[in-house]
Automatic annotation (TrEMBL):
<dbReference type="InterPro" id="IPR016188">
    <property type="entry name" value="PurM-like_N"/>
</dbReference>
<feature type="binding site">
    <location>
        <position position="31"/>
    </location>
    <ligand>
        <name>Mg(2+) 3</name>
    </ligand>
</feature>
<keyword id="KW-0460">Magnesium</keyword>
<protein>
    <recommendedName>
        <fullName>Thiamine-monophosphate kinase</fullName>
        <ecNumber>2.7.4.16</ecNumber>
    </recommendedName>
</protein>
<dbReference type="InterPro" id="IPR036676">
    <property type="entry name" value="PurM-like_C_sf"/>
</dbReference>
<keyword id="KW-0547">Nucleotide-binding</keyword>
<feature type="binding site">
    <location>
        <position position="47"/>
    </location>
    <ligand>
        <name>Mg(2+) 1</name>
    </ligand>
</feature>
<feature type="binding site">
    <location>
        <position position="325"/>
    </location>
    <ligand>
        <name>substrate</name>
    </ligand>
</feature>
<feature type="binding site">
    <location>
        <position position="76"/>
    </location>
    <ligand>
        <name>Mg(2+) 2</name>
    </ligand>
</feature>
<dbReference type="InterPro" id="IPR010918">
    <property type="entry name" value="PurM-like_C_dom"/>
</dbReference>
<feature type="binding site">
    <location>
        <position position="106"/>
    </location>
    <ligand>
        <name>ATP</name>
    </ligand>
</feature>
<feature type="binding site">
    <location>
        <position position="210"/>
    </location>
    <ligand>
        <name>Mg(2+) 3</name>
    </ligand>
</feature>
<comment type="similarity">
    <text>Belongs to the thiamine-monophosphate kinase family.</text>
</comment>
<dbReference type="GO" id="GO:0000287">
    <property type="term" value="F:magnesium ion binding"/>
</dbReference>
<feature type="binding site">
    <location>
        <position position="148"/>
    </location>
    <ligand>
        <name>ATP</name>
    </ligand>
</feature>
<feature type="binding site">
    <location>
        <position position="31"/>
    </location>
    <ligand>
        <name>Mg(2+) 4</name>
    </ligand>
</feature>
<dbReference type="GO" id="GO:0009030">
    <property type="term" value="F:thiamine-phosphate kinase activity"/>
</dbReference>
Length: 328
């Protein structure tokens, strides 16, 4: 493992991967790809979750791991405004993974599949030194696919879902503190928001991303893809942090953990001014998770380095697009 980090490594691999074309309406660089199959667009994504990186066996059961493998992919489909349909699984089974644990793992995947309408249709297994699960999911666009690159100055930013619960759970565990049940549940069994993603796509949102690595870093992906700055209102965004997290974390760590810890699987979307009412009505009707307006899209202060800014009650805004979890 080198020290380049996940985001730089993905950028380095870009020249070897397919960009957008008539056969691939959305290529590399988004939450999922969109591939044209006949007259139908198919949305495809993949995530790998690894023992010791994305889960720990002392915190999560095999069924929890199975649920999470499905949830993180459904969240990627949600960010594209896609309806989940099916998945295939690649299991890398380590020697200590028992047959009973494997059964529980697949039971957890099946449970999450029922929750979000994902048929687990097969896959592969192989012996490996470390336990990990690779899951590839497909879906179909509910409307025109939404990418990270559609935000424009004047758009408003809407956040769907809470922030900071899973990251706070891991922080508390690392500090040797009791972990509140609701925070541990957010880490073990995250909640994807596909109905909200579809609602935003149909109502006219123009850019969207799921918050898997932290709001700061993931908002940075939108800023760079769209060539804009994002300005986040601190008071508005911190209202998305559960009171359990606020009570648990020291004040000097609260914003950094909540906005940069990752594993939220909330949705951040840019909405043009003339679609605000429609998106509000759609999210209210869907009622999948709490939502709030947290900021605006602005022209970039420096076009060479689009940025994400967190307004503060006193003093200059703080740049936060480096706040995020890097899987290496």
């Amino acid at each position: 493992m080198t020290s380049r980090g996940e985001f730089q490594r993905l950028a380095d691999l870009g020249p070897h991967l397919a960009g957008s074309s008539p056969a691939v309406p959305v290529g590399v660089g988004d939450d999922a790809a969109v591939v044209r199959v006949g007259a139908q667009d198919v949305v495809v994504c993949v995530d790998v979750i690894v023992d010791g990186v994305h889960f720990r066996t002392d915190l999560s059961s095999p069924a929890d791991v199975g649920w999470k493998a499905v949830a993180v992919n459904v969240s990627d489909l949600a960010a594209m405004g896609a309806i989940p349909q099916a998945a295939v699984v690649g299991l890398q089974r380590s020697p200590e993974l028992t047959e009973d644990a494997i059964d529980q793992l697949y039971a957890g995947m099946a449970e999450a599949g029922r929750e979000w309408g994902v048929a687990i249709v097969g896959g592969d297994t192989v012996t490996a030194p470390v336990w990990s699960v690779s899951l590839t999911a497909i879906g179909r666009p509910a409307a025109a696919s939404i990418t990270r690159g559609g935000a424009r100055p004047g758009d408003r930013l809407v956040l769907v879902g809470p922030l900071g619960a899973a990251a706070a759970a891991l922080w508390a565990d690392g500090e040797g503190l009791p972990v509140p049940d609701d925070l541990l549940a957010a880490h073990r069994r995250p909640r994807a928001l596909p109905s909200s993603g579809v609602a935003l796509a149909r109502a006219g949102a123009t850019a969207m991303i799921d918050l898997s690595d932290g709001l700061g870093a993931d908002a940075g992906h939108v800023a760079r893809a769209s060539g804009v700055d994002l300005r986040i209102d601190r008071t508005a965004v911190m209202a998305a942090v559960p009171s359990t997290v606020v009570d648990l974390l020291p004040e000097d760590l609260l914003a950094r953990v909540a906005l940069g810890g990752g594993e939220d699987f909330a949705l951040l979307a840019a909405v043009p001014a003339d679609r605000v009412d429609a998106c509000e009505a759609a999210l209210t009707e869907t009622a999948e998770a709490p939502w709030r307006w947290i900021g605006t899209v602005e022209p970039p202060a420096d076009p060479s380095t689009p940025a994400v800014w967190l307004d503060t009650p006193a003093g200059p805004p703080e740049r936060i697009d480096a706040w995020g979890y890097d899987h290496g």
